Each structure stands twice: as structure tokens, then as C-alpha cells.
Amino acid sequence: MSYSSARKRGTFAIGALVALVPAIDLTALNQAIPHLSADLGPSATQILWIADAYGFALAGLLITMGAVGDRIGHRRLLLIGTALFGAASAVTAYAPSAEALIAARALLGVAGATLMPSALSLIRRVFTEPRERTAAVGAFFGLVSLAVGLGPVLSGALLDHFWWGSVFLINVPLMLVALVAGALVLPESRNLLSGWPDLPGVPLSIAGVLGIVYAVKEAAAHGADEPKVWVAALAGAAALAAFAARQVRAATPLIDVRLFRRAAFSGAVVTNMFAMFALVAQSLIFSMFFQLALGWDPLKAGLAGLPGAAGAMIGGAVLAPPVITLLGRARAVALGMAVSAGGFALFLAIGLDTGYPMMLPAMVLAGLGMGIAMTVTADTVLASVPKERSGAASAISETATELGGALGMAVLGSVLTAAYRGALDLPAGTPPGAAAAARDSLAGALQAVAALPERVGAQVAATARDAFMTGMHSALLCAAVLAAGVAVFALVTLRRVPKVIEEEPEPEPVAAR
């Protein structure tokens, strides 16, 4: 079925809007935590749950929501999720306690799990011409990247004038617009199989994904030698193994495991996961280097990071389609990852005294390369499955991306911390308490400086910043090597994937077995 240009543009705009709001919201929370902490007085454990409740609910339910959308229709699921996300945002904004805020954040995660798979599936449905679809997917992911960069800027501006709840309340009118426009514009997208997806598989998929994600986060925070890390990892792996075994036998599985036999699908999913692993290096730069090492305020740091996000948008929306035509999908991904590796390598020449203009080539190259690579892999995932399976396919890809991001933060964060501690050489006379805080992190060192004599404090701060640069360069070197490795991996796994992946004819409706 073909759609008018107006329907295509409307579907893209609505899908992008419902994906942009959660992306902005995710980064806005980091800015709001100091303000809500002063208001609600959460414990250290509660602060962690406020930050993690959204991500845990989102990651755990992506597969389930993708399968549900393939059966009830992605238009319907997206409208339900949009309404729920708007309502949960209002509840979050006015949460009277830390416990209520944690519950509201989890509800936001549930709603968020419905949005990305549904938006991508609808875009896949209306953009049927391959080059046009690739450009739409590239623009979609480019805008999401830009939203992540804009999050600190917008939230910083709101927090300068309003209370902490304003960064969540702003979601309500945006989601209301998306809800009304979606009801009028979005086409329906239904799975041709009847029957509900495998319900016993739902808790297995949730337990498996949450177990792995929790283990990765705990390993990053407390070290991989903690018993609970291994218990969670083993439990998650066992649940995922049981889930996979069940999906092979289920009459109406949550995911069709036969999709992984397609080189285009499996290779693109794994490549996307490891690309996100490397991309985390960018967030380390933006959140820690600009604010902690250079002492910039959140608004300035957010603005400084926008060229990288703009590069990702240009790479995805503008460069990816012609690069696929010229080089093919495998070489396009490899080129993108190689360019990103070059950008990460350029960061190694950046120091505390480097002027901002000298940082721009590194940011733009890293963003351009990632925009090309991740657009091609995302488009390959969507194009390599039938339309009626696009929700589940998108959910699998998003779950892998979430896992890649968590792994990247854990591994690269651990590399940065280890190199920082190894390079930290505190001046003689540093009090034990201040020394312990400084060894923990750069943030701890800068907080401890306030209680020290001016001369000693200045020495501790300078030493900690120098050690941080050593740690940052170590993490970025690992990211560059990983990006280069992903380039080689893509050349091998995607080498037989054609430039143009033809649409599969839609089968006649059949009943569930």
C-alpha cells in the first residue's frame, strides 16, 4: 500500500516527537536530581532507583511491547503509550515523596517501551521505497541524538526559572499534541497472525533482560567481584536461555527466533549493540569533561556538545543513503565506524588547555560516523523482516542498544576510573578523608577541595584534573579500538547483505496455530 507525501511526513513527525520527548527526559533527570534531592530528601539508594527505574522498566518491556504492537496494531499501541507517558510525566512532576517519584519513573519506563518500537514500525510501513526509508530512519535517529544533546540545555533553562518538576511537566503538552495528531494522521499497522503472544515468555524475557542489565550496572558501580553481580548475571542468562528455548516451541512467540538466521538481521543487531558501546564515550566526554574537568555549567556543557549530535543527524539523514548506494551496507557501516574511531582518536590530543574550536573536529567526526553506521544498521534491521514483524524486530534492536549502552558505560567507566586512580598522585599533607574522596572520583576530589586550605586544595584539584585526563584518554583509546573492531565485524557479518533489501510481499491473513 502506498501513502501520500502528507501522510508520510505526518507519520514521521509524530513518530519523531514521541521518541524525542523520552530522549530529552532521560538527560533532563540528571540536571534535576540536585534540585529534587533538596526538596524530597531521598536517600542515596533512592537516588539510584530514581535514576534507574525508568531504564529498568524500559529495557525489560521492550520485547513484550514490540510483540503486542505487532498484534493489536502499532498505531493503537503508540497512542496508548503516548497518553500514558503524558499522564506519568504529570505524576512525576508533582511526586510528593521519593517513593512516589520512583514509582512514577517506572511508569514512564513502561510507557516509553511502547513508543520507540511503534514509531519505527509505523515509519517502516509508510516509507516503502528503500532510499526514502533509509533517509527517514537516518533523520529519525539523528533527531533522537540531537534531543539527547538538547536535554541538558532545555532542562538547564527550565531549572533556572522553575521548580524541578517543570522538566517533566513540559512533556504533557508535547504528548497531548502527539496524541491528537496521531489519532488523525497515523495509519494502522496490524500483524497478520491472530492470537496473543506467548504470555509465559513475558516474565522470562523481563527477568532475563533485567538480570543482565542490573548485573552490568552493579559491576560498574561496585566492581565485578560482588556476589550479587554474578547472581544477577547467571539468573539473567538462565532466564534468557529458557526464553529462547520456549520461543522455538511457542505457537505465537514473542519473537520469531528464526529472524536471527538472517545475516542482515543478526549482524545488524550485534553491530548496533557494539556501536552503542563505543558511543558511550561521547557521553563520558560531555557529562564529565566539560562540567568537571573544565568547570563549565550544565547549560554551557550542553551547548558545547551539540555539534556532535548535529554531526550524527547529518551522517544519518544526509550521508547514509548515498553511502549505501556507493559502497553497500557492509562497507557503509565499516566506513562510519572507522570515521568514529578517527574522531575518538582525535580526542586523545585534547587537554585541559585545548581551545573549544580544536575539539570540534573530534566531536563532528565521531558524530558523523556513528550517524552513518547506526542508521544503516537500524535500517537493515527494519528492512530485513516482514512489515508485520517490524515491531518485534525494532524491540530486539532497541534492547540490544540498551544493553550495549549499559555495557559501554560499565566497561569504559571502569577503564576511566582505574586509569584515574593509577595516575592520581596527591600532594603530601592531603588529609586522609580528602584523599579517600579524591581517589574515588574527580567529583569527589572537587567536593573535598572546599574543606582544604587554599594552597593544598588547589594542588589536589589540579592533580585530580590531570589524572582525570589520563583516565579519559584511556577510555577514549578503548572506544577508538572498539569502533575499529566493529568496522571489521560489520565487513564480515554484513558482506552478503544487498544494497537494496526488497520488500517482502505481505502474506494472506492466517490464524494462530
Describe this structure in words.
Mean pLDDT is 81; it is low at 506-513. The longest helix has 40 residues, at 454-493. The protein has helices at residues 5-40, 44-72, 74-93, 98-126, 130-159, 166-169, 171-185, 201-222, 227-249, 263-293, 298-304, 306-327, 329-347, 356-383, 390-423, 432-440, 442-449, 454-493. 54% of the residues are buried. The protein is 79% helix and 0% strand.
Helix proportion range: over 70%
Give the tally of β-strands. Answer: 0
- The CA-CA distance between the termini, in Å, is 27 Å
Number of helices: 18
As a percent range, the share of strand residues is under 5%
Q: For the residues shown, what is the average pLDDT?
A: 81
